[in-house]
Amino acid sequence: MHHQQSNEIAIAILGGSAIFIFLGITLIFLIIIYRRKQQEYFNQKLILEENFRKELLQAQLETQEQTFHSLSQELHDNIGQVLSLAKLNMSVIEMNSIDTESNEMVSQTKNLLNIAINDLRDISKTLNTEYVKEKDIKESIDRELAMLRRTRKFSADFTINGTPFFIKAERRLILYRIIQESLNNIVKHAGATHIVIDMSYTDNRLDIKITDNGNGFDIEKTRDGIGLMNIKQRSAMIDSKFNIESKPGTGTTLSITLTRDIDINAE
């Protein structure tokens, strides 16, 4: 009888232990599942927030491009026509004038109008979204630097190393806007006289460096500037890496690294 009671107690203990072990394992399993689901939730939340941020930025860029396009048409259709008409009127005055000195002044004015018309045409092209998309990045950069050189305030060098590869139109447009914004910052803030753009192609990526001999600046104090924020946001849109190096008195170097498009046949 005593032996039977001992067996029952042992079985009860073993059964209880088995139940506790099962409950413990079940609890651990539930905790693991909970943490995994929690992590999946946080990851999904981050993905949704990132997608929302990109979609919002994309909408902002599209609105900006629409504004650029409208401005481009306005410059070409209205202001360009006014300057052309002014040039035509100067030609009529030149034909009807017998005063040599006046004719010389009219001729100089016509030359100035020619310069203004050509500059306006170039600016209109750089603002025209569809026009920029049709051109390769080299041609677009050449046009920007040509406009800067014509001011006679800047000299500029542009070098390309390696074999250029295809970049989709949308990425090419945003990359061009990054370079355009960088050059605009140099003109407005750097106090520079010389600009160097170096493009280096490898099999899978494009490295661009834009360097000026300007005043430089403290990056920590200027990190939240609108120009730099625009460049940073656009870089994120095309999955490129963006870095800037500068110190007061040493000029500035902006670096962009763009990975090659996976589908090289898509336009």
Give a short overview.
The chain has three domains: 7-43; 69-127; 137-267, Histidine kinase-like ATPase, C-terminal domain (Heat Shock Protein 90, 2-Layer Sandwich), CATH 3.30.565.10. The protein has seven helices and five strands; from the N terminus they run ααααβαββααββ.
Written description of the protein model:
- This protein has a five-stranded mixed β-sheet, with helices on one face.
- Helix 4 packs parallel to helix 5 and helix 5 runs antiparallel to helix 7 (226-237).
- It folds into three domains: 7-43; 69-127; 137-267, Histidine kinase-like ATPase, C-terminal domain (Heat Shock Protein 90).
- The longest helix has 95 residues, at 2-96.
- Helix content is 68%, strand content 14%.
- It is α+β, with helices and mostly antiparallel strands and 267 residues long.
- Its EC number is 2.7.13.3.
- One of its GO terms (molecular function) is protein dimerization activity.
- It catalyses: ATP + protein L-histidine = ADP + protein N-phospho-L-histidine.
- It comes from Taibaiella lutea.
